[in-house]
Amino acid sequence: MAVGKIFAGMPWWVTWVAVPALALAVFGGMIVSVVGLMILLLFKVLLFIGLIAGLVYFVRKFTSSSKTRKDW
Questions:
Q1: In angstroms, rounded to a whole number, what is the distance separating the alpha carbons of residues 31 and 23?
Q2: Where are the domains of the chain?
Q3: Contact assessment for residue 30 and residue 37, using Cβ atoms and an 8 Å cutoff
């Protein structure tokens, strides 16, 4: 059964207002949880990348300065 046939005799507001409102009411908590999890995961990935970049920066800085000073 096609979706178009189900909503064929209905007013426009049933398709465009009532059905999305019911979907948000039923699945709203799950949607918020998934979006929150994705934001948290993105934050952790960016934090990890920043920490690795900082580590590489400091290691390169100290190893290049140790070659010039020759006192290590």
A1: 10
A2: 3-69
A3: no
